[in-house]
Known about the structure:
267 residues; 5-stranded mixed sheet; 12 strands
Amino acid sequence: MSHLLREHAPITEAGWSRVDDEARERLTPALAARRLIDFSGPHGWQHSATNLGRVERVTKPPGGGLDAAQRRVLPLVELRAPFTMSRSELADGDRGAEDVDFAPLDDAARRLAVAENTAVFHGWKGGAITGISQASPHDAVALGTDCERYPRHVAKAVQALLEIGIDGPYGLALGPETYSLVLETTEHGGYPLLEHLRKILDGPLVWAPGVSGAVVVSLRGGDFLFESGQDVSVGYDRHDADAVHLYLEESFSFRVVTPDAAVPLTA
């Protein structure tokens, strides 16, 4: 039995399969940060900290003639997004219904994805996480509202990285509003803005809920490290006659190794 306690839920094996499939379908496009950074793991629920490879000197060791140091680690944080499923809806799914109402699960997936993306790109003080935009020493590039100027702004960000020896390819995380503007814009001559930006970056553009504005990052590897303890999983809390109370849960750490490998673009 795992700590998720799924065996105690009044959900059939087929029902769990549908819940897991729905969660995966909603989370895959929304967990945008993972498509642009280095992902390690999952290392398991008991994995508690990331080794930083550094020490801090400890004063007054318990004995004479000794030097002492303590290893530095980055503790993993846990995120949990609770939601409630109707038992009657789950039963209808077992009967073969194709339109099971997974709205509560979908909302929980959105909340968890937004939180993870926000932590990675903008930081989470309470979780001791410094975000990519926070760490970047580059001056933020203002996007503005004129989408036809976006290629110039993105090219400026790419040039800033090239000038200090940060190689590509590059990726671009776009907040939902900015992504919609890019997706809807066609340049003079009918060429999609989305494709123009991809050519500049030589890499992907990703829809990233939780991101404010946009961020250009190098995809060369080794600059932004995400360490997963438990990857996002569905767990069981409790149930009553009408509903089953579940949750999405994950544990992770994130650290910026090379702060100047990204350039923020403000909305």
